[in-house]
């Protein structure tokens, strides 16, 4: 009985460190012997799977949203800075592009 209790405890406490691996090991090793361990391991496993999926979705959304934001900002800069340069050129003022790299010399 003590090993069942320890197995259930391991399923809960180690899940924060090892994700869904330890609850799965606990479920596979002790789940068939004890309904209580199985119930606790299933709870921990379901929780870890859910939050792993949500973490992955969060990372993907962050990459996509930040990616679109970078594209939008670069597109705006690529249109606004030459517009400012054109306005300066029509008034006879020289313009130096900010954040420029001398690729062609």
From TrEMBL:
Where is the protein found, in the record's own terms? Membrane
- Superkingdom of the organism of origin: Bacteria
User: What are the record keywords, sorted?
Assistant: Membrane, Transmembrane, Transmembrane helix
Q: Which residues cross the membrane?
A: 6-29, 41-61, 67-87
Could you tell me which Pfam families the record lists for this protein? MamF_MmsF
Annotated membrane topology is: Multi-pass membrane protein
InterPro entries assigned to the protein according to its UniProt record, in alphabetical order: MamF_MmsF
**Per its record, how is this protein called by name?**
DUF4870 domain-containing protein
The scientific name of the source species is: Actinoplanes missouriensis (strain ATCC 14538 / DSM 43046 / CBS 188.64 / JCM 3121 / NBRC 102363 / NCIMB 12654 / NRRL B-3342 / UNCC 431)
């Amino acid at each position: 009985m003590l090993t069942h209790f320890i197995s259930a405890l391991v399923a809960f406490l180690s899940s924060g460190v090892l994700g869904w691996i330890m609850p799965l090991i606990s479920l596979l090793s002790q789940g068939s012997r004890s309904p209580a361990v199985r119930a606790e391991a299933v709870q921990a496993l379901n929780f870890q799977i859910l939050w792993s999926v949500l973490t992955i979705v969060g990372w993907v959304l962050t990459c996509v949203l930040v990616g679109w934001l970078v594209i939008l900002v670069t597109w705006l800069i690529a249109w606004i800075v030459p517009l400012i340069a054109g306005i300066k050129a029509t008034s006879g003022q020289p313009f130096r592009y900010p954040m420029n790299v001398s690729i062609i010399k």
